[in-house]
Amino acid sequence: MEKNLKQRVLSGMRPSGKLHLGHLHGALSNWVELQKKYECFYFVADWHALTTEYEKTDKIKQDSIDMVIDWLSVGLDPEKSTLFVQSQLLEHAELHLFLSMITPLPWLERCPTYKEQLKEIKTRDIHTYGFLGYPVLQASDILIYKADKVPVGEDQLPHLELTREIARRFNSLYGEILTEPQALLTKTSKVPGTDGRKMSKSYNNCIYLSDTPEIISKKISSYLTDPSRIHPTDQGHPDVCAIYSLQEIYYENPKEIEEKCKKGTIGCVQCKKMLAERIIKSLEPIHKKQHELKSNPMLINEILKNGTQKAKAVTEKTMSEVRKSLKLWNME
Ligand code: TRP
Ligand code: SF4
């Protein structure tokens, strides 16, 4: 398959099951937008899930399906983008193997995500070869598609830099085969969860894309607001209020709320009610799509199978070049 004229975008997500507003505003809306201008490849990084979940693998497949349902429901379009599952493309593993040969250990050991996770994750033993190699697998995901651009959040920038270094090293050893990708830094809107911290499954503070209107109203009313406001007429401080951060995403004119809050002419109960209505409304078409997809489970399978086929045409071509450049067997 020839690369078409559009630049190529590639990104992946670990299978995290049903998605929440943090995923939507942090990554997915951007993925949807990129479909207009780029040739996009988006995949479920289920092998990456194994780096931490190797002891308990029974949820990975269902989480992948739930995640893809949410991808499609917010507008990722299999007609425009290639959607696939990493573990169905064995070439990723082959390239990972070659890249592992040329990646110096210190590049991996100094990686900030590695050091942080080793400190943070206490419930599972991640002192493994596979976990150390997480970014090498990610590099292989990216380089095998010769992606030009990789939309990621800030936390992933070190992995992108490492990918570029690995590509340079590969090319200087074996010839100019791989493309050095650029990061497309997603400007993440701040999406606070019900406790004011970053929305995250592990904090149990999420509003899910599949939450019903009743649950959304309940969750929104449970948010803490400006703690110095006791009466609705007290002057408020939107800058310290999690509800205001969400209003900035959902309300067409957030300045209006900011002013009213500061003057004490809007109460938190009313403010929350307005927000909940908007979130509920914005999720209506998404729920409709989720419902359609859930009533036709074969469809997801079909979409991923098609995507895998399209992706495979690319990975096989790259690997054939890679094997040649390494002067290895390449029987066709
Ligand atoms: N490490 C990424 C994350 O946790 C997921 C990922 C795996 C990825 N392979 C990738 C992202 C390739 C971009 C490109 O979010
Ligand atoms: Fe927050 Fe709205 Fe209350 Fe102001 S009025 S403190 S923005 S919830």
Write a compact overview of the structure shown.
The chain is mainly alpha-helical and 332 residues long.
What would you note in describing this structure?
By secondary structure, this protein is mainly α. It folds into two domains: 8-191 and 297-326, Rossmann fold (3-Layer(aba) Sandwich); 211-290, Orthogonal Bundle (Tyrosyl-Transfer RNA Synthetase), CATH 1.10.240. Helix content is 54%, strand content 8%. The strands form two sheets. A three-stranded parallel beta sheet has the order 1-2-3. Strand 1 (8-13), helix 1 (21-34) and strand 2 form a beta-alpha-beta unit. The longest helix has 29 residues, at 297-325. The radius of gyration is 22 Å and the shape is elongated. The site of tryptophan has 13 residues, from strand 1, helix 8 and strand 4.
Give the total of domains: 2
Write out the strand line-up for the largest beta sheet, numbering strands in chain order. Answer: 1-2-3
Task: Tell me what the CATH architecture of the largest domain is.
Answer: 3-Layer(aba) Sandwich
Tell me the span between the first and last alpha carbons. 16 Å
How many DSSP helices? Answer: 14
Mean of residue pLDDT values? 95
What's the shape? elongated
Query: What level of helicity do the residues show?
Result: 40-55%
Percentage beta strand:
5-15%
Identify the CATH class of the largest domain: Alpha Beta
Which small-molecule species are bound to the chains here? Answer: tryptophan, iron/sulfur cluster
Largest sheet: 3 strands, parallel
Secondary-structure element pattern, one letter each: EHEHHEHHHHHEHEHHHHH
Stretches where pLDDT is under 50 for at least 5 consecutive residues are: none
The number of strands is 5
CATH topology name of the largest domain, in short, is Rossmann fold
The CATH homologous superfamily of the largest domain is called HUPs
Structure class: mainly alpha
Rg value: 22 Å
